[in-house]
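PROTOCOL LOG
Step 1. Enter all chains and additional molecules of the complex.
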Amino acid sequence: MTEARPRLSDRQRLAWLRLIRTPNVGPATFRDLINRFGSADAAIEHLPELMRNAGAKAPPRIPPVAVAEAEIDTAARHGARFVGIGEPDYPPMLRRMDHPPPLIAVKGNGAVFALPAVAIVGARNASLAGIKMARLLADAVGREGYAVISGLARGIDTAAHEGSLTTGTVGVLAGGLDRPYPPENAGLCERIAAGAGAIVSEMPFGWEPRAQDFPRRNRIVAGLALGLVVVEAARRSGSLISARLANEMGRTVFSVPGSPLDPRAEGANRLLKEGAVLVTGPEDILDALAPLTLTETPPDVSAEEPPDFSDAPPLIETDRTVILQALSPVPVGVDEIIRHTGLHPAQVFMVLLELDLAGRLERHPGGFVSLVDPET
Amino acid sequence: MTEARPRLSDRQRLAWLRLIRTPNVGPATFRDLINRFGSADAAIEHLPELMRNAGAKAPPRIPPVAVAEAEIDTAARHGARFVGIGEPDYPPMLRRMDHPPPLIAVKGNGAVFALPAVAIVGARNASLAGIKMARLLADAVGREGYAVISGLARGIDTAAHEGSLTTGTVGVLAGGLDRPYPPENAGLCERIAAGAGAIVSEMPFGWEPRAQDFPRRNRIVAGLALGLVVVEAARRSGSLISARLANEMGRTVFSVPGSPLDPRAEGANRLLKEGAVLVTGPEDILDALAPLTLTETPPDVSAEEPPDFSDAPPLIETDRTVILQALSPVPVGVDEIIRHTGLHPAQVFMVLLELDLAGRLERHPGGFVSLVDPET
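Step 2. Run joint prediction.
Step 3. Record the structure below.
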């Protein structure tokens, strides 16, 4: 996918949308299915059999063609489009994260993704000083040619977007692209998309964001940027999760200090203790990121080699049992499973894929997997 | 001096006081004179000749015996005493700095110097939050067995002393021990000295502090402590000078962060960028210093070996000319002068001592010296 970057045909896009909208098909499973079966269409054909193999009681709930077509129509009515991971207008930075979303809905000016980017996030109940700081930083890095990424939340996020409306900002939604949250930021979404920026979401149109959707949103906020700046963050806050995710992806984490007596600074100060770059002004961000903008785009994370299926012996039921026995709720490396069971990598790959589709497998960063505890 | 720690006799103490109160005799010169002549009395005898040799127009202004006796009487009336560097009750931490003051005036409970110590300094025009923080930190480290050192200034310094009155605090004055500055802190000085702490000064009784005396005061504040905490500090402030001095002495520098939009946090945040330990609570200080309190007291800095005078050829006028020519307003290492001139170390030592006494030499950390620019 990396060299040619061909566009998906309408038929392919429809199949991609159906596959990614199928329950238990996340970004990693999607990639494995494409690697194994060559196309989304072929994967969809095999899904029922794979899930049966893993002991799933019900057949996969693959959205019918009409439902996926309706979502594509809805997107078009909203002036949005779906962009696949292999396509030329897919954000290059997203490809550099673990398990990038295979298909995202985008509305606005896609050229913003070509800019080097800084994420600026923080507290919803921000202080006036925090809001001023976020706007000031966004404005300054924007003028220096950076896009500003944020999560469209109240407080710091809103200030970050507003400070970079004319230079280019990207708002990432936790729900569908037609479901701005908080609702009062609907106008901000329109202004972002009508200007130099864009709004994006990996969630279906019509999806109302729930609490558990925000960490997924934060992952994309971090993934889109070279570095992530936390302006104000309480002790347990989404901004700290974003910082952790950014750090895990190898992005630079920045933090604006505050008085230890201000609870809104507690998380930000803790990040500084843990090694975040201290920010008192935009030059601290620019100085740290400038060298990164000069480097070539590294290879796509998603372009990892699938196993060679051609010489794999056929799977028998004993193989599934052996692999299941090697798994537990404690994460274990896929490599280790291959070594431990002595099975062909393609066999292990397939059994894990089946378990994943049946909702029995959890995937962790670094190629680790664990069994989903049926109790939880 | 390091093993026995004998007390000075009254006669020695008087001579030490006369010698250190002589203009152009600073701590380094004092040490060199004692090293060369064996005692303060003998040094005083040689001063006129040494200054003549260096081309001084006027004889040295050595305080007469009566004047020094009067200062000792004044000290006694104030309930204070003079402590010499070799004596058992001289603060052990001070011995570990470059050029410790040979004689200090102390009032209060000398046992406080036996405690491991933390200096807490900051802005005079501190915010209420800053004052609260300083008091809280001082109280907490005090309860953990640390003495709190500060400079008796308004704002942060006052809060630091007040937070540690009952556990032990040391106030260092920039003027004489009988000249508290600011005057409204006279009561605080009394409370410190009457309780578990002490006030100290290297300046003469009756000395009104001038602007240039505060960096000398800050040097002792930093020198008395294992680490120095800056609570609030503007861009150019005495607290930053204290932090630099502490760093040069190998003391740990701590800093409490603040909002970048608050000018009172600018200096503190800059220290964090330069590597100061970020402090949001007392445990940050305690965690960093605890390992240091377990180590043996390192050898006294002041105990460096003087050159061997016994085999030095007598000085002739040409030697002085050669050494003068090797000097300039740019600091140069004493070792380098010895190598460059080919003279005996004792000869170089003596000529530098003469120039020092004549006010023509400036000494810098690390054994560097420069010629005083006659224009300034």
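Step 4. Note key features.
The mean pLDDT of chain A is 90.
DSSP finds 15 helices and twelve strands in chain A.
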